Amino acid sequence: xxxxxxxxxxxxxxxxxxxxxxxxxxxxxxxxxxxxxxxxxxxxxxxxxxxxxxxxxxxxxxxxxxxxxxxxxxxxxxxxxxxxxxxxxxxxxxxxxxxxxxxxxxxxxxxxxxxxxxxxxxxxxxxxxxxxxxxxxxxxxxxxxxxxxxxxx
Length: 153
Prior knowledge:
This protein is an alpha+beta fold and 153 residues long. It is built from two helices and six strands. It has a four-stranded mixed sheet with strand order 1-2-4-3, covered by helices on one side. It has a two-stranded antiparallel ribbon with strand order 5-6. It is globular.
């Protein structure tokens, strides 16, 4: 399963009870965890969950000082691990065409975090690597035609 939850405190979709307009980050994360508890309940044992979640800067809320990244992806990951999800990977999704920032006191954020979770140690996974092809080449270092080394191509 793949999910991209709404950013916290960014957009109002004018839907009652929507995720993302909670008063605090803690409430937002608690609501996400409740949803993913239900996902875990119905997900097959060999299933996996991919979450793309973004961060934002504090606007002087009570939890984080103004101008600081809130750390939403990291807090989310820790909450999921505490809720018995297995975090298999944290992947950086680089966005080369990210919108430039007008703020001059920090670097532009051109990435988001993607998390790969499973609910059990036995899950379906197909590796990203192709089978390596090999060829044998003459061992030039020793100038010996009878000795060959494996080279991966």
